[in-house]
Structures are given as C-alpha cells and as structure tokens.
Protein: peptide-methionine (S)-S-oxide reductase
Organism: Maribacter hydrothermalis
Amino acid sequence: MKKVFKVGFGGGCHWCTEAVFMALKGVEKVEQGYISPKENPTNFSEAVIVHYFPGVIELKDLVAVHLDTHRSTENHSMRNKYRSGIYYFKKSDKQTLVDIINEEQQNFDNPLITAILPFGAFKSSEERFHRYYFNDMEKPFCKTHIAPKIKLLKEKYAKHLSSSVL
C-alpha cells in the first residue's frame, strides 16, 4: 500500500484552494476548513489539508501550484483571513519547504510572502461547502474566481491534472 503524506495550504478562499488541489493527480483527499499554526492555535485562517502520494506528485510540485494559484507575493487587506502559508506536519519537512520556496522565488518578480508554519489545529468548514466548485461549476463565484485557476492549471500544470476530476 502506498504511503500518503499530508501538507496544509492557505492563501485564498478555501473553496478555490480545495478545487485546485482536487484537480491534481496523486492527491487522495483535500480537507477544506481553517488551519492555525502551532505557535498561535487560536489564529485560524482559511486553508486546506492535502493528502497526497509523493510517488505520483512531489511536494515541490504542490508548492509550485499553490504559489501560482493565489497572490503569494501580496500583503492585502484580507491577508489575516487568507494567510499565505504552508503548514508542515513533520518537523523534517520544514527545511525541505524552505528550500522549495527559495527555489521558487526565481519565478516571481516580487518577494514571496508565503510563511512556512508548523501545523497547529484544523477546523473543518461546513459540509455544504465541501467540493464547492465540483458540485456546481456554473455558480457565479466558481466562474469568476475558481475557473481561472483551473484554466491556469490546464495551461501550466497539464501533466499533473487528474482526468477523473476535470
């Protein structure tokens, strides 16, 4: 049986983030909700936990997708609600993530603001919001905010897209 790894991602609306990662090969499950970092367990922001098979998709590819599908270089007024972060579950993953972010920085004109944080706690969003995009792609929010991210995946990350999802 293949071993499943997990990592948390936050940066934008969790409906968007969930759809992006659900569209990828090698992603077994995406939990949509709110994550807080270990150092501040009551400071939740919208995020997802991605369960993935590293033999199918690598952590560096997940990070690249994440950085490209939210405003990872912008400190905007909604940043507390939508913290740009990657949450690790194993301490050994921290340096790997630092190295990946440093390597990815060359692909951006402005400095990345995405924080690498130890996972603290998770609260699931309401069940009715799970699979938001895939339950009704025609909703105005989906067309306006999520569909452009899926289009970017098709253009830039086609080899990682799951045909069963799209």
Remarks:
- The two ends are 26 Å apart (CA to CA).
- The chain has one domain: 5-160.
